[in-house]
Amino acid sequence: MSKVICGLSVSVDGYITGRDPGPGRGLGDGGTLFDWYGSGNVPSRVFSGFRLSAPSARIFDELASRVGASLAGHATYTDSNDFADGAPHPTAPLVVLSHTSFPPANDRQTIVSTGIADAVQTAKDRAGGKDVGLMGGVLVTEALKAGLVNELILHQIPILLGGGRPFFHELPHHIRLSILEVVAAPDVTHLHYQVEGATETAEAAR
Ligand SMILES: NC(=O)c1ccc[n+]([C@@H]2O[C@H](COP(=O)([O-])OP(=O)(O)OC[C@H]3O[C@@H](n4cnc5c(N)ncnc54)[C@H](OP(=O)(O)O)[C@@H]3O)[C@@H](O)[C@H]2O)c1
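Above: query sequence and NAP SMILES. Below: predicted holo structure tokens.
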């Protein structure tokens, strides 16, 4: 069954961007969050142009290979110039969640404006039996509230950014995690968690 996973680059103080992100400057002043994509000498098998350290390449490619569809919050979408160039994933189609409807930037995109459960189900339908990769801190928090996230991966960068957009927002209750894997690579620590008690289907979350 298709799982819902979220792996984001995050500072030690919990930010997925630096200060002042916006269209065309998706990490604000926190550009160092993505340095590990190019700081090694092992080419990614999934993302051309990425050269990672050996431990990071193994983890990055395992996760990227699992993704059959991406699901992004609208802010991630606009700050990445609507992914009009075909990103964020070389093969997976993109679903975007917003409260409003608007035309997609290309035919690999689907805009959903009917809530998080519909967005996750749409992404699962597009994923061809593979997993759904979430992008955006507000979005992943909404999915956690709905019990729809199976795994969280924090690619934790050794920096305190001091401000920016947080990975996690307030939740109405505790959510327990179990540790699947922790790998310390040269410039990033990969923290892979399973979310306990996740709902198996988006229908059940409605
Ligand atoms: N460090 C990393 O690895 C990484 C990865 C991805 C993204 N980012 C960065 O993260 C930033 C964006 O993250 P973010 O947390 O600010 O925002 P986000 O989660 O990407 O998007 C939030 C928006 O998504 C829509 N949305 C979310 N939940 C919804 C719901 N339940 N129903 C309807 N619409 C919903 C809303 O759009 P509307 O306002 O249109 O209704 C909301 O304003 C960007 O700057 C991006 O570059 C970093």
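Residues 8-9, 16-17, 21, 26-27, 33, 72-76, 79-80, 97-100, 115-116, 135-139, 142, 165 surround NAP (CB under 6 Å).
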